Amino acid sequence: MAKRALVSVSDKTGLIEFCKGLTAQGFEIVSTGGTAAALTAAGIKNIGVSEITGFPECLDGRVKTLHPFVHAGLLARRDEPAHMKQLTELKIDTIDLVAVNLYPFKSAISKPGCTLEDAVENIDIGGPTMLRSAAKNYRDVLVVCDPSDYSEVLKRMADGTDDTAFRFGLMYKVFAHTAQYDALISGYFANKQGIAFPDTLTLTYEKAQGLRYGENPQQQAAFYKECYECPGSVAFARQLHGKELSFNNINDANGALELVREFSEPAVVAVKHTNPCGVAVGEDIYDAYIKAYQSDPVSIFGGILAINREIDERTALEISKIFIEVVVAPSFSAGALAVLTKKQNIRLLELPSMCAPLASGTRETKKVSGGLLAQDADTTIYEGLETATHCTPTPDELRDLEFAFRVVKHTKSNAIVLARGGATVGLGVGQTNRIWAAKQAIEHAGARANGAVMASDAFFPFPDCAEAAAEAGITAIIQPFGSVNDADSVAVCDKHSIAMVSSKGYRHFKH
């Protein structure tokens, strides 16, 4: 009896060549709908699925392969005499190979104007069922869901190496494929119903690249990206130069991109170990870069830069003077590329969408042992300010206070940021108490603290931070308020003519 292959695909990449190869190896091809039409047009003999089921396709093609003559032929174990006896009694032939890929649900819902009805009609029923049946019986049925596997399947069948291990690999791909398909569907309908945090959360990602190692050489790692293009994400940047990105490069670049998105004016963000080490806005990118570099000329070495305008040759020449791991920008001028590509160890990433705002409903997740934390993205800076002291901030101080508060939002808690003239001058990062963060920022700033403003990611529990600010010559402070000791901090500021502004409860912890 001839071997039988059931082929029914939405993605017809490589279909004709594959089916010619199957025919050459003695397979009888059973097909459906558009796949049958494509094969017939190419002169490849095939029989319709209705010919083996004895039942016509119906309901506009919704029902065609959901039939015992198909699924018994797939699920019957060849090493089980009772199964084979039943097939003989029922006059059912075995199916030895299934090549199926599914209705394009992902591409359908990605199209502008996709309606609920469009999405529903692109949910495949028969395809996943056939794939799962064939995969369950992988020892007897070759199951192919990925056109990139066609050539290897033909080769292995021809040379007799389509062994159990190979078939098991194909089986695994099927269940990964159908799991992703179902996750996309459930996620789409959760979104349609406005369910932010469903009772059951199933996430799906696609592998972007393997990594040489993780945070440290003894850790294995890989990078996965979302199934849909995410504006402003490093996962969808185009690498123009340099060796492949590392785990830490990607993590740091993500942090830099999250912060640079805060600014509409020309901005440069330098990040080291996921924390900003130099941030500035300027009249142009050159001005912003010089200010960001001067914020901390030591820490920027070996750091990551996110720059929200095209990089010109003049700025590139400045960047090239030190070692920088990664530069992400919407574009690079020809002159900038000529300069920067001379440096072998710099990675250049082009990301035109880097300044796009986060999509509404964007959520963040963090893996913890045995679980997953999920929350709305922190997209708000504040919804108004209130001056708590007798002294009010000047317009320049207000601009710097907002700038510093945007930076502290992306700095690990407990965090204090000092800024002046649209640039950071001192950062206190990731301390276990707020006064240490304040002292670190002041020490980092040195003489530049005099005349600067201070931003805190959360309230002052005691007046010690205000006292340290006064001693350093800081002229204005922004903090969320909410401490039982707020009045003590205000009193210190009034005593030293420091303007203290409240973000009215908007804090920005970052852990």
Explain briefly what this protein structure is.
The chain is of the alpha/beta class.
CATH class of the largest domain: Alpha Beta
Q: What is the fourth-level CATH superfamily of the largest domain? A: Methylglyoxal synthase-like domain
Identify low-pLDDT runs: none
**Helix content, binned percent:** 25-40%
Radius of gyration: 30 Å
Describe this structure in words.
- The chain has helices spanning 15-24, 33-41, 49-53, 68-75, 81-90, 105-110, 116-121, 126-136, 150-159, 164-192, 247-260, 285-295, 313-319, 334-340, 395-408, 434-445, 464-472, 486-495, and strands at residues 3-9, 27-31, 47-48, 97-101, 142-144, 205-211, 221-226, 238-241, 267-272, 275-281, 304-307, 326-329, 347-350, 363-368, 371-376, 386-387, 416-419, 424-428, 453-456, 476-479, 499-502.
- The protein starts with a strand and ends in a 9-residue tail after the last strand.
- The protein folds into three domains: 3-192, Rossmann fold; 236-350, AICAR transformylase, duplication domain (Cytidine Deaminase, domain 2), CATH 3.40.140.20; 386-502, Cytidine Deaminase, domain 2 (3-Layer(aba) Sandwich).
- The longest helix has 29 residues, at 164-192.
- The radius of gyration is 30 Å and the shape is elongated.
- The model has no long low-confidence stretch (mean pLDDT 91).
- With 511 residues, it is α/β, with parallel strands linked by helices.
- Helix content is 37%, strand content 19%.
- It has a six-stranded mixed beta sheet with strand order 8-13-12-11-9-10. Strands 16-21-20-19-17-18 form a six-stranded mixed beta sheet, with helices on both faces. A five-stranded parallel beta sheet has the order 3-2-1-4-5, with helices on both faces.
